[in-house]
Design goal:
By secondary structure, the protein is an alpha+beta fold. It is about 40% helix and about 20% strand. It has helices at about 20-50, 70-80, 110, 115-120, 130-140, 190, 195-210, 215-230, 275-285, 325-330, 375-410; strands at about 1-5, 85, 90-95, 100-105, 150, 170-175, 180-185, 235-245, 250-255, 265-270, 290, 300, 335-345, 355-365. Helix 1 crosses helix 2 (about 70-80), helix 7 (about 195-210) packs parallel to helix 11 (about 375-410) and helix 8 (about 215-230) runs antiparallel to helix 11 (about 375-410).
């Protein structure tokens, strides 16, 4: 981590790398994968020393002498399909035709009142109440299942939750190539109500009105962090984090609580956010919550025949757990929970294509565990999308102005 020479005025022009952005991305992906392989080797030795039992679910094992192509393949699986979910929630995979549970996390006992061994293989109506089943049926018949999110979890009659059970929970459903995944989260009743959702989006609309009329990138980034900081009181630090062409990142705007370092003007290496994780941000384009880095993950277990199909696709799951090295990295900064929104643009300088490109991130840190409800995350996702449009518009204006100056100079010659 390096600090900018001039903290008061941070350059908003990305540093040009030694090669093209695509070359830098390819090179960085290999570095990310090799670093993860080293971390896994250290973790494996630690678990042997501490006599930690190996997880019996799907794992992509590292080999001593792997070609880089295999290292990259296994690394992508580790980031997007690591077969564990964050411990504050639970996940099930169902067959949309039969509604049979094909996989689930151990933590389902806290939400459904039954251990994962009993939930695996059962019909969904054996664990979900009638009203929840009706919503699931409607969502599966819809062309836009996500429009039904979130909906309230109702259990079957007679189920009793033990110690650690979550009595009020929300369901979040999405469709994958392997089936339908339903995530269960603690339900914040105040934010989950229709009135709460409307209030969240009303605040978001206020933020959008302020940033869309501004044409200066530094100013719009500064307004953005202040508004997000005000919108969600849980955060102790909010930053706009811009990626340079060599893929390293720089904090270009910051708002903090009293007693917290702002990190303004500081630079982080490209490995701070691996390329595999960046691709997921572009693909999902939604707010990503890590509720508590110290909360143990919940492993996912599958029906025996599901193992032949490989790992469960968790790339779009709300509860997908980060890799262990990232959790340790976040904890080392004195942060226990994070919420991150991608800033995705097209026609980024130096990219040379109209493909979506991760220009940067809006990063929120909290010094204690924090569960930001799904409706609030949805509102923040909307804010992030419009902020992305504002950044893209400003970059386009700069590009046009530079081209105009170049044309004028050539005409003068």
């Amino acid at each position: 981590m390096e600090e900018s020479d001039n903290k008061s005025r941070v350059s908003m022009q990305p540093t040009v790398g030694s090669g093209s952005i695509q070359d830098n991305i390819r090179s960085q992906a290999e570095t990310d994968a090799l670093l993860q392989k080293e971390f896994e080797a250290v973790e494996a030795k630690r678990k042997v020393a501490e006599n930690v039992a190996p997880f019996d679910g799907y794992t992509a094992q590292a080999q001593t002498d792997e070609p880089i192509s295999k290292v990259l393949e296994r690394y992508a699986c580790t980031v997007g399909r690591n077969q564990v979910v964050q411990g504050h929630g639970a996940t099930v995979l169902i067959n949309p035709a039969t509604l049979q549970v094909r996989a689930c996390s151990e933590s389902v006992i806290n939400f459904l009142g039954k251990p994962h061994t009993e939930v695996l293989g059962c019909h969904l109506q054996e664990v979900l109440g009638q009203r929840t089943m009706e919503v699931v049926h409607q969502a599966l018949l819809s062309a836009e299942p996500a429009l039904y999110n979130p909906f309230t979890l109702e259990r079957v009659d007679g189920v009793e939750l033990g110690e650690g059970g979550v009595h009020s929970a929300a369901c979040i459903l999405h469709v994958t190539e392997r089936g339908v995944i339903i995530d269960f989260e603690h339900l914040d009743s105040e934010k989950h109500t229709q009135e709460g959702q409307v209030a969240c989006h009303r605040i978001a609309a206020s933020v959008l009105g302020k940033i869309l009329s501004i044409k200066d990138l530094s100013t719009v980034c500064g307004i953005m962090v202040q508004e997000v900081f005000t919108l969600v009181a849980d955060f102790n630090r909010v930053m706009v984090y811009m990626f340079h062409e060599d893929q390293h990142g720089e904090v270009v705007a910051s708002a903090t609580s009293e007693g917290f370092d702002s990190f303004m003007g500081m630079h982080w290496p490209a490995t701070d956010l691996p390329q595999a994780a960046r691709k997921l941000f572009v693909k999902n384009f939604s707010a990503r919550l890590i509720a508590d880095v110290n909360n143990p993950d919940s492993p996912i277990h599958m029906m025996p025949e599901e193992h032949d199909e490989g790992p469960i696709p968790l790339e779009c799951s709300q509860l997908r757990s980060p890799v262990g090295c990232h959790k340790q990295y976040v904890a080392n900064m004195g942060t226990l929970s994070t919420l991150v929104m991608p800033v995705v643009v097209k026609n980024a300088p130096g990219v040379g294509s109209k493909e979506p490109y991760l220009w940067g991130l809006i990063v929120c840190h909290c010094a204690k565990p924090s569960h930001i409800s799904y409706p609030v995350r949805t509102a923040l996702t909307l804010v992030g999308r419009v902020f992305s449009s504002a950044v893209e518009q400003i970059l386009e204006l700069k590009k046009s102005a530079n081209e105009q100056r170049s044309s004028t100079a050539q005409a003068t010659l």
